[in-house]
Amino acid sequence: MLKSKYRILLNYLKLTSLYLATLALASTGCASGDDFVDAAVSASAEATSASDNAPVDAPSDAMNPVDKSAEDLSVIDMTDYLADEEPEDENAGKLLGNFQFTYYWMAQEKRSKSAKKTPIYNSRCKPIAKVTQSYARRLAMEGTGTLRDGRLVNVSGPCECDRSPCFFVIKQKEKRWGVGVAERPLSPFRSAAVDTKVVKIGTTLYVPELDGLLMPGVAPWGGFVHDGCLIADDRGGGVKGKQIDFFMARRPYYQSFHRRHRLKKVTVYDGDKRCEGVKKSKAERRRTES
Q1: Which among 188, 183, 159 is positioned nearest to 171, based on CA atoms?
Q2: Which among 24, 49, 82 is the end of a domain?
Q3: Is residue 26 a part of any domain in this protein?
Q4: Which end of the chain has a smaller Cβ tally under 10 Å, C or N?
Q5: Same domain, 112 and 69
């Protein structure tokens, strides 16, 4: 940015030198075209030499605008060219860093002819259902999923049962997409799982790479242009360090979004100020659905 400013100053100085040379020639009554060209080239070369010898970290005296007493030099206004970059957004929060960007969604049990089934348990070690071993692993990884009978189950944490982790059945309507830490309802395209050593649960985050992207699905959960605001609602077992696990609700939504955008690294800011309305709208939705 600094070098580009000096380059603009150099061009300005050359134009000014040419202008002054013209005035000098006119005042001495010089009418020769060759004299005019020689004087102009000489003035420009001197300006270039002075600027080349100037230190990079600060403009030299030779690069300062020439005598301001010369008439009509104000016709070239450098204010717009030398202005600083656009001011930072007043609502921009603290930069948290560059994060790995991953995705998760609700698991869905598919019909299987496999005779091998394994029970999944609640925290009292009572079986909730029998599922295939592959689906039990998928449930443990995603945290939330639907059973073939339509019930929605969510991971409750490690347990001492024959198989861990344990689960519980979600019955509340407002928790149709599962829950995160402390039974915080998950919202598609809003909720994110984080490493709680890096980001506290409940923190509002702003991801500029998401801002302006169309989300898959249909209203009210999808089909909207994202504003970049996320909420740390969940904690992922496989989420480590600077990583954001973006809740996509359904695998087809993830596939559609990933084909178009392929986000793998994002910039994350504290979104407390910028995303103030997101928490309010989420709380309002929960009230209207309960």
Answers
A1: 183
A2: 82
A3: yes
A4: N
A5: no
Domain of 233 in residue numbering reads as 95-289
10-residue block means of pLDDT along the chain (290 residues)?
Answer: 50 60 54 48 49 48 46 45 47 90 94 81 96 93 93 94 95 88 95 97 97 95 96 93 97 96 97 86 56
Contact partners, residue 1, CB within 8 Å, separation at least 6? 85
Cβ within 8 Å of residue 140, ≥6 positions away? 155, 165, 237
- Phi-psi group of 83: left, alpha or beta (phi > 0 → left; psi -120 to 50 → alpha; rest → beta): beta
Strands 152-157 and 144-146: antiparallel
Helix axes 33-52, 2-28, angle to 10 degrees: 150
Which tokens hold the place of 13? 């100085």
Residue 90 belongs to a domain? no
* Cβ proximity of 24 and 39 under 8 Å: yes
Q: Which of 82, 106, 126 is the last residue of a domain?
A: 82
* Bond into 165 cis (ω within 30): yes
Model-level pTM? 0.66
DSSP labels, 133-198:
HHHHHHHHHHSEEE-TTS-EEEEEE--SSSSSSEEEEE--GGGTT-B-GGGPBP-TTTEEEE-TTT
